[in-house]
TrEMBL record:
This is STAS domain-containing protein. It comes from Natronospira elongata. Residues 19-105 form the STAS domain. It comes from the Bacteria. CDD domains: STAS_anti-anti-sigma_factors. The lineage of its organism: Bacteria, Pseudomonadati, Pseudomonadota, Gammaproteobacteria, Natronospirales. Gene3D superfamilies: STAS domain.
């Protein structure tokens, strides 16, 4: 089996309630994503800029659903911005359009 460089993921604060997610939101980073999200205040509106997400898979979508669930449970709201086409496709084929709202285009 060939060595593969590990996937990386970063979550940085971009303002009050605004965050920028970058890197790969995949099986290999799902646990890291959940750990990074401990700094989010799910009781408020959490706006995620996803323009820096280079790759996403079903595990990444599961992380997004978990973040949405945590917001709902805490009385907050999750808003996604600059959603990559790959994630839009996963949301649509998983019939989660109603969870994440208008995906644009």
């Amino acid at each position: 089996m060939a060595d593969q460089s590990p996937s990386s993921l970063d979550l940085e604060k971009a303002g009050r309630g605004r965050y920028r997610l970058s890197g790969e939101l995949v099986f290999g980073t799902a646990e890291q994503a959940l750990t990074l999200s401990q700094s989010l205040d799910f009781a408020t509106t959490v706006e995620l800029d996803l323009s820096g997400v280079k790759r996403v898979d079903s595990a990444g979508l599961a992380v997004m659903v978990e973040w949405w669930r945590r917001c709902q449970a805490a009385g907050g709201q999750l808003k996604l911005g600059e959603i990559p086409e790959q994630l839009k496709a996963l949301i649509r084929i998983s019939q989660l359009d109603s969870v994440f709202g208008d995906l644009g285009g």
